[in-house]
Inverse folding.
């Protein structure tokens, strides 16, 4: 049976009808003093209402609204508000804006993001976002949560040791951008300009080091080339703002090329708000404005740090720094009151889009959501389905799936074999309930359980013998090993990539003793060098489950016994241990250079344990091209030729000089299931630019589709390829260009060439 959380018993004791609804944040229709104020009039445009409200505030009031724990303004009927809530993969109580208890003892805990990303399923990501925001709104209505959620984390998983890589969608910028777009759309569920909740893409930018060998995120200066910034680090954030229409972006602790990210006007005003057109607010990572002064010593006085952040485009400080030092910054003339007004306009606009100034919450859209809409059976079923879709089969010597008739007794061994909280990773809340791997497997077979290691970092082998005995007498052995938050977490980067403690020895000894097939299941956010297991014939299968969420044990068991045919693909490269000896975490370069091997599948060409995109199935698939254009034309913007200064290069055209609104070319790919089991296939499409582009990636992901194919049948998948979006690369100056010539598309084992040329028709005449 699943281990019940407090949720089940408490919910039975709480009558939904007795749950008090949240009082109005502002514009209470029962308040005769404020209900007629201009900023409360719903028939007026939001910008008019915002301007009216700001005009009524005093400077001290304005300053105390610049921080996450914003004060109440009783004379205007405005309640205090805590901006900091989290919803990375479910409503979380990490931030002070959300708490569990009473009618809301828990919330649905989905798999950690790195696991969900392995599904390569865009519709799933959006669906999860919608469920999370339903539960968030329900908790807001019940007075237990806010409406501003500082999620998702869309940083690039650049280095395999990063403790927070688990929170991200992986190492590929296109994958991360698509995840960001779809999860944000699900969370915000916009109706016109109205939002269900406000999401936030973080941490901008080039942030992926927490604490490694004495270098921490508070002191780190990320030296990043214009090229890497444009074609790697900024890509998911741009997608989040431009495509996802996110309501907020969070700037990071670190410096970027010598400037704190939260005090760089080129990054905040210039890029996020200027180039990308953010319609929302920019918030600092927590205490990062204080870090600028106290730790990085970027300015001589605290008020100068406050002024630099606000002038750069920061609107909200997670921390007290702006509340303390902005007044002196205004007094000294470092900033004006108008600068403060501009920041407030951005935050208050988002609050109004959320309906926080619309009076009674219960009368608004989503006002009917309550305790009965949290931890529903449908939500929990989606968490299970997400876990199933994210599990990756790394190795299989025909031992999986297990059989309920041949494998009646299963030895379940390992420090994560009966894991519960470990399965939900970090930035999680309180799960509705858990099903551990041991419990999941017990639904299919009789289990013999031995921990084997007392914790993931075990240093004693005194439990090994019992584990060996269990394996020796069982029909099959499942070892559930890996990491947990004591090994990888926020402010905890790894030093190496091997299994911690004595886990490797335990796995090898149990595999030698096992009477039946031995399956290694790995829980982790980051990659692990399990070369020993990959090469050991006695270990017949390896599964990566990531951190699979509250229903992880059920999902793992369903894959082991074939109820689910695995279809996940790795969203990051699994490097060998000796890779990290060559690559300091502090080197932000993506491309290889003298003695430096480069990073991620796009640039690193050395040996790997398992490559990006790797994932097996219990069936086999075959690809064929049904429709594949061989020529693509890039239309040029005719307005460019009106200037005498324009020079045309036949080698590569700047994307900004192309007419990128022209139609894309459609490719039809038939995916045939040539095996005898129904299965889901993830189709990954990569492109390679013409030879001779020294600054280009070797290949880059341009699209993906997840498709279910019945055994013996085929499905047609349609992929759009557009020169601007899919065949462009970034040069050394950070300029995106479309190389002319022969590009290659890689679709599984297929390779197709496309000739790309500039269309000068009607221009050069």
């Amino acid at each position: 049976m699943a281990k019940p959380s407090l949720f089940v018993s408490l919910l039975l004791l709480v009558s939904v009808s007795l749950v008090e609804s949240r009082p109005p944040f502002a514009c209470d229709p029962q308040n005769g003093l404020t209900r007629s104020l201009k900023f409360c009039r719903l028939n007026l445009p939001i910008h008019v209402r915002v301007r009216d409200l700001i005009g009524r505030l005093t400077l001290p009031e304005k300053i105390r609204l610049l921080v996450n724990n914003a004060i109440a303004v009783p004379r205007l009927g405005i309640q205090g508000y805590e901006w900091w809530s989290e919803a990375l993969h479910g409503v979380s109580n990490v931030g002070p804006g959300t708490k569990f208890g009473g009618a809301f003892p828990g919330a649905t805990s989905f798999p950690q993001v790195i696991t969900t990303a392995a599904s390569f399923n865009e519709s799933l990501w959006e669906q999860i976002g919608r469920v999370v925001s339903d539960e968030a709104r329900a908790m807001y209505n019940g007075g237990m949560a806010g409406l501003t959620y500082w999620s998702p984390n869309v940083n690039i998983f650049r280095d395999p040791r990063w403790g927070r890589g688990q929170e991200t969608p992986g190492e590929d910028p296109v994958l991360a951008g698509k995840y960001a777009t779809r999860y944000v759309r699900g969370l915000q569920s916009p109706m016109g300009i109205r939002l269900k909740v406000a999401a936030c893409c973080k941490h901008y930018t080039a942030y992926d080091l927490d604490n490694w060998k004495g270098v921490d995120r508070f002191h780190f200066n990320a030296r990043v080339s214009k090229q890497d910034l444009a074609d790697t680090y900024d890509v998911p954030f741009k997608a989040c703002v431009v495509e996802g229409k996110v309501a907020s972006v969070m700037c990071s602790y670190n410096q970027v090329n010598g400037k704190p990210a939260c005090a760089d006007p080129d990054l905040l005003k210039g890029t996020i708000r200027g180039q990308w057109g953010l319609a929302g607010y920019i918030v600092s990572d927590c205490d990062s404005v204080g870090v600028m002064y106290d730790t990085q010593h970027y300015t001589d006085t605290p008020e100068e740090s406050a002024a630099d952040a606000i002038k750069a485009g920061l609107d909200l400080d997670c921390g007290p720094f702006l509340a303390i030092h902005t007044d002196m910054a205004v007094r000294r003339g470092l900033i004006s009151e108008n600068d403060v007004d501009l920041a407030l306009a951005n935050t208050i606009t988002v609050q109004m889009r959320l309906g926080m100034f619309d009076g009674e919450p219960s009368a608004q859209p989503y006002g009917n959501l309550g305790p009965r809409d949290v931890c529903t059976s449908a939500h929990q079923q989606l968490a299970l389905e997400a876990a199933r879709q994210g599990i990756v089969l790394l190795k299989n010597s025909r031992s999986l799936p297990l059989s309920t008739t041949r494998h009646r007794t299963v030895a379940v061994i390992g420090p994560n074999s009966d894991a519960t909280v470990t399965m939900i990773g970090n930035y999680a809340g309180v799960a509705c309930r858990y099903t551990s791997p041991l419990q999941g497997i017990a639904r299919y077979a009789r289990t013999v359980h031995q921990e084997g290691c007392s914790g993931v970092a075990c240093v004693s082998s005194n439990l090994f013998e019992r584990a060996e005995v269990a394996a020796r007498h069982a029909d099959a052995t499942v070892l559930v090993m890996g990491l947990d938050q004591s090994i990888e977490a926020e402010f905890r980067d790894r030093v190496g990539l091997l299994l911690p403690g004595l886990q490797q020895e335990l796995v090898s000894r149990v595999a030698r003793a096992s009477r039946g097939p031995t399956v290694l299941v790995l829980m982790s956010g980051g990659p692990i060098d399990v070369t020993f297991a990959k090469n050991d014939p006695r270990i017949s299968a390896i599964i990566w489950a990531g951190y699979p969420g509250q229903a992880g044990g059920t999902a793992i068991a369903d894959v082991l016994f074939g109820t689910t045919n695995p279809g996940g693909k790795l969203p990051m490269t699994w490097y060998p241990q000796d890779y990290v000896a060559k690559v300091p975490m502090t080197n932000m370069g993506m491309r290889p250079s003298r003695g430096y091997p480069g990073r991620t599948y796009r640039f690193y060409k050395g040996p790997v344990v398992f490559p990006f995109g790797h994932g097996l199935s219990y069936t086999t698939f075959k690809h064929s091209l049904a429709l594949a254009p061989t020529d693509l034309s890039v239309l040029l913007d005719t307005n460019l030729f009106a200037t005498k200064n324009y020079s045309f290069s036949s080698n590569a055209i700047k994307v900004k000089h192309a007419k990128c609104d022209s139609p894309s070319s459609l490719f039809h790919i038939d995916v045939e299931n040539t095996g005898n089991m129904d299965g889901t296939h993830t189709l990954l499409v990569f492109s390679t630019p013409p030879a001779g582009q020294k600054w280009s990636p070797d290949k880059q992901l341009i699209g993906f589709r997840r498709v279910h194919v019945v055994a013996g049948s085929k499905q047609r998948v349609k992929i759009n390829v557009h020169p601007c979006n899919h065949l462009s690369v970034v040069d050394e100056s950070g300029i995106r260009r479309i190389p002319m010539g022969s590009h290659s598309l890689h679709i599984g084992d297929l390779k197709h060439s496309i000739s790309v040329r500039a269309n000068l028709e009607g221009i050069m005449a």
Q: What stands out?
A: Residues 621-759 form a domain with the Immunoglobulin-like fold (CATH 2.60.40.10). The first strand starts at residue 3 and ends at 4.
